[in-house]
Design a protein that fits this description.
107 residues, Glutaredoxin, four-stranded mixed β-sheet, 4 helices, 24% strand, globular
């Protein structure tokens, strides 16, 4: 498993900015790769767009930010879960851990 947390966010999003103070650190502490995708960064967005569109075909239900946890993000990806919206650091960590626990119990 090469799990990654992919953060889809916008430069205009205040909550996204606030989360950026700890989201990458928490993800890496949990042994996950962290990929930051700003919608304004078209090259990076294009690279990971398929993952977002698999989860949100019309983008209407996505949150700001949306964190999609997936396996093999660079290739034949498998989405294992997500965390939507902004949370305090501790709760964000717990929500990522819940997704990981759910993924582990499926294998």
């Amino acid at each position: 498993m090469s799990l990654a947390v992919i953060k889809f966010s916008s430069e205009e999003c205040g909550i996204c900015h606030k989360m950026s103070f700890y989201d990458q650190k928490v993800s890496e502490e949990l042994g996950l790769q962290f990929i930051d995708v700003k919608m304004q960064d078209t090259a990076t967005y294009r690279k990971y767009r398929q993952i977002l569109l698999t989860q949100y075909p019309d983008k209407s239900d996505m949150g700001w930010p949306t964190y999609i946890i997936c396996d093999f993000p660079e290739g034949d990806f498998q989405i294992v879960g997500e965390v939507k919206g902004g949370y305090p650091k501790g709760e964000f960590r717990s929500r990522i851990q819940e997704v990981l626990a759910g993924a582990a119990s499926q294998n």
